[in-house]
């Protein structure tokens, strides 16, 4: 299916699942190399990153634990600029190597906010792995360490990414119709 409708919007096929799977496999290999012989704490950002995290985790060979956190800054296709609270972080992160798992880094506000909170937790290091990165929308200077697919600044759905809560289950990624 090349075109789908979600609520009031039309979306067209943008990235087929084979390409996404290949990109995720490459991210997994890069993480396995970077954290070889290390313990790793993965912070999975709900809700969007669960699909990417599940695909990624099956391909990780490093010693890792997971924790799910939640923080949302998006509604509809417009960034609201209101950042909500971070919930779900109960683990002691002292001296840990932390890897944030994101479905998408867009403006980077969510990422910057999480890093800001983790700064006070005496972590060993903090990096990020994201399935999708929009370099043209990114507003911060923090490095984005592991990127599956860089894309232009277009609104997309699928593979965990939603439009008003729908479309997360799509196996391919769709972009909003022009
Ligand atoms: N799609 C869905 N959610 C998002 C996006 C997007 O393009 N950017 C930031 N959150
Ligand atoms: Mg997200």
CATH class: Alpha Beta
| Total of helices | 3
Widest sheet, order of strands: 4-3-7-8-9
Give the strand tally: 11
Nearest-integer average pLDDT: 93
Q: Structural class, judged by helices and strands?
A: alpha/beta
Are there runs of 5+ residues with pLDDT below 50, and where? none
What is the CATH architecture term?
3-Layer(aba) Sandwich
Distance between the termini: 17 Å
Write a structural description.
The protein has 178 residues and is of the alpha/beta class. It has one domain (18-151): Rossmann fold (3-Layer(aba) Sandwich), CATH 3.40.50.2020. It is built from 3 helices and 11 strands; from the N terminus they run ββαβαββββαββββ. It has helices spanning 17-34, 50-57, 109-118, and strands at residues 3-6, 9-15, 39-46, 63-70, 74-75, 78-79, 97-105, 125-133, 146-150, 156-157, 173-176. A hairpin with a 2-residue loop joins strand 1 and strand 2 (9-15). The longest helix is centred in the N-terminal third of the chain and has 18 residues, at 17-34. It starts with a strand and ends with a strand. Residues 74, 104, 106, 155-157, 161-162 line the site of hypoxanthine.
């Amino acid at each position: 299916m090349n075109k789908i409708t979600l609520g009031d919007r039309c979306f067209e096929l943008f990235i087929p699942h084979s390409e996404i799977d290949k990109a995720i496999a490459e991210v997994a290999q890069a993480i396995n190399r970077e954290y070889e012989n290390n313990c790793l704490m993965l912070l999975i950002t709900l809700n969007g990153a669960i699909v990417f995290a599940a695909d990624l985790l099956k391909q990780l060979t490093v010693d890792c634990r997971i924790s799910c956190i939640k923080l949302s800054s998006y509604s509809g296709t417009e960034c609201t600029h209101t950042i909500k609270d971070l919930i779900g972080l109960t683990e002691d992160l002292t001296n840990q190597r932390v890897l944030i798992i994101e479905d998408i880094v867009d403006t980077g506000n969510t990422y910057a906010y999480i890093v800001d909170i983790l700064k006070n937790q005496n972590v060993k290091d903090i990096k990020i792995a994201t399935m999708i990165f929009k370099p043209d929308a990114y507003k911060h200077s923090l490095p984005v360490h592991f990127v599956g697919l860089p894309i232009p600044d277009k609104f997309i759905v699928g593979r965990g990414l939603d439009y008003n809560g729908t479309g997360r289950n799509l196996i391919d990624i769709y972009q909003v119709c022009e």
